Amino acid sequence: QVQLVESGGGLVQAGGSLRLSCAASGLDTFSLNTMGWYRQAPGKQRELVATINRGHSTNYADSVKGRFTISRDNAKNTVYLQMNSLKPEDTAVYYCKTTTWAGSDYWGQGTQVTVSS
Asked: Strand order of the sheet with strand 3-7?
């Protein structure tokens, strides 16, 4: 059974930092291609935050460039999101997603990030 478990969300003041982690289990490490983070704020559509492929090439939403850093540990099937200089508009539920080489997508259950002004 494939599981993605996120952790690290919480409440932080504007300007603060948080680090999210997402560990994937039930998948062979060599089957994982892209891993990434998405977020969904109340009343809004889910949007891409950042992705990283197996070769560690990254892609970021313009709104988080220079503030967020995505990384991964292939041996641990884990992806991280370091979030610095957080803003109230970063408040959302953050979801981890992984895509296999076969094209299958798996999502985590989400973790709440709340940034107070």
From this structure: 3-7, 18-25, 78-83, 68-73
How confident is the model over 73-110, as pLDDT tens digits?
A: 999 999 999 999 999 999 999 999 999 999 999 999 99
Assess whether pLDDT exceeds 90 at residue 31. Answer: no
Paired strand residues for 99: 34, 105
Residue 86's nearest CA partner among 33, 39, 24 is 39
In the 3-class helix/strand/coil scheme, how is 54-113 assigned residue by residue?
CCCCEEECCCCCCCEEEEEEHHHCEEEEEECCCCHHHCEEEEEEEEECCCCEEECCCEEE
| The pairing of beta strand 18-25 with beta strand 3-7 | antiparallel
Mean pLDDT calculated for residue range 25-30: 84
